[in-house]
Amino acid sequence: MLYLPQDDPEIAALVAQEESRIEHTLNLIAAESHSPRSIMEALGSIFNTKTIEGYPGKRFHAGCAFADQVEDLAIERAKKLFGAEYANVQPHSGTSANLAVYFSVLKPGDPILSMSLPHGGHLSHGHRASITSKCFNFSHYTVDGQTELIDYDEVQELAEKIRPKMIVAGASSYPRLIDYGKMSRIARSVSAYLCADMAHIAGLVAGGVIPSPVPHCDFVTFTCYKTMLGGRGGVILSRAEYGKKVNSAVFPGCQGTSPVNVLAAKAVIFKLAMSPEFANIQKKTLENAKLLAAELSALGFRIVSGGTDNHQVLVDVSSKGHDGGAAEKAMEAASLIANRNVTPRDAATPGKTSGVRLGTSGVSVRGMGGAEMTRIAGWIDRALANSGNEAVLGQIAGEVKAMTLRFPVYA
Ligand SMILES: *Cc1c(COP(=O)(O)O)cnc(C)c1O
Questions:
Q1: Is residue 6 part of a domain?
Q2: The domain boundary residue, chosen from 225, 254, 272
Q3: Beta carbon of 123 within 6 Å of any ligand 1 atom
Q4: Can you give the CATH number for the domain in which 241 is found?
Q5: Would you say the CB of residue 322 lies under 6 angstroms from ligand 1?
Q6: CA torsion angle for 378, 384, 389, 391 (degrees, to 10)?
Q7: Does the residue 119 lie in any domain?
Q8: Pocket probe mutation, ligand 1, options 29, 90, 95, 150, max atoms within 8 Å of Cβ
Q9: Ligand 1 close to Cβ of residue 221 (< 6 A)
Q10: What dihedral do alpha carbons 256, 262, 268, 272 form, nearest 10°?
Q11: pLDDT tens track of the chain, all 411 residues?
Q12: Distance, CA 4 to ligand 1 centroid (Å)?
């Protein structure tokens, strides 16, 4: 940094502290990862200055020649990467992408069927606190109480009862694969559109290590900052026939100008995602999640749904007498960064949070593998058993730091 320390030493110092925090702690947050430096360069580039409204070739301000090429590259690469007929790369976030999809083909008040939040769904899937629930009439499917897997029979029954105009398949906290073929058959049986929200798993899909929703869905939304390893912001993929409607729903429907620097970062990550290195990180992410789940299970923790097929491990810490919130704090004091999360079995008890959600994208980007997953599981167990004991938690933090030095994020 050349100019920030001069203009604003306080913010510059915070950036430096955050860099150190990222390097010396373990990022186990399932909704985060580590972006390549080139992403930060694109985000910090001169394109941050350019104001664009509309779409390439149809702008409302002059001077868009290079911005148009950036957006065209992002669109073309997104389509190629995911085998999609159409892409809109302008949504500011996953939530805005979902909102735009709803408004593209539905009318306010139309019924939508999506996954219940305490069972793994997302706020933007019609949670009562989200604007989505004020615009559309959501009903929710759940996971089976025993298996903690999506109950497709319930989805079919609800679909027949509610006659939704759209079904949303996708989750924030669901460590298993979604059967998009089944979801598509259910949607077609009631003439509903199918939208997959692959915000968490887009990188795994791009890397070809889990099945893609794209061939089965009318719409697919995702964000670039989770397993996708890119900058922030959302993307909508769809069948070509809905392209025009999605474009108007995004701009001017839900948003104004689009940040060209963010579009540039999206273009960069879509290019990088076509490389064997990216696929390899995604493969390691899956392997590491399975290993971490197995290690924690061997230490006596109950793993929600019994394991994982993606980058997430949802640990029911109440199985060893802990609370999710206290676990998150104890882990943070030990430099193990994750988030408390409800488990499906908490759904009936408002305020109860028995889970910690772990993700293996960040540690896999750093090159960690089986030996490190074993140590991480051991540290988590020790941190939880010593919740509130600053000496032990500090000791673990020291051991974590020693390991992070061998696996730098940014060498
Ligand atoms: C993370 C996530 C989003 C992204 O939402 P933001 O608006 O970018 O915070 C959307 N849907 C799901 C299922 C998610 O997990």
A1: no
A2: 272
A3: no
A4: 3.40.640.10
A5: no
A6: 20
A7: yes
A8: 95
A9: no
A10: -100
A11: 899 999 999 999 999 999 999 999 999 999 999 999 999 999 999 999 999 999 999 999 999 999 999 999 999 999 999 999 999 999 999 999 999 999 999 999 999 999 999 999 999 999 999 999 999 999 999 999 999 999 999 999 999 999 999 999 999 999 999 999 999 999 999 999 999 999 999 999 999 999 999 999 999 999 999 999 999 999 999 999 999 999 999 999 999 999 999 999 999 999 999 999 999 999 999 999 999 999 999 999 999 999 999 999 999 999 999 999 999 999 999 999 999 999 999 988 888 999 999 999 999 999 999 999 999 999 999 999 999 999 999 999 999 999 999 999 997
A12: 31
The protein residue whose alpha carbon is closest to atom 4 in ligand 1 is 94
Compute the distance from residue 119 Cα to the ligand 1 centre, in Å.
15
DSSP secondary structure code for residue 237 in this structure: E
Give the chain's length.
411
Cα 269 to middle of ligand 1, angstroms: 18
Rounded distance between C-alpha atoms, residue 217 and residue 166, angstroms: 11
Residue showing tokens 């999605």: 246
Range of the domain at 223: 40-272
- The reply to whether 146 and 293 lie within a common domain is no
Ligand 1: does its nearest atom lie under 6 Å from the Cβ of 218?
Answer: no
- Give the number of other Cβ atoms within 10 Å of residue 105's Cβ: 18
Give, for ligand 1, the residue of 29, 112, 124 to mutate: max count of ligand atoms closer than 8 Å to Cβ: 124
Coil, helix or strand for 282?
helix
Q: Is 127 in the pocket of ligand 1 (CB under 6 A)?
A: no
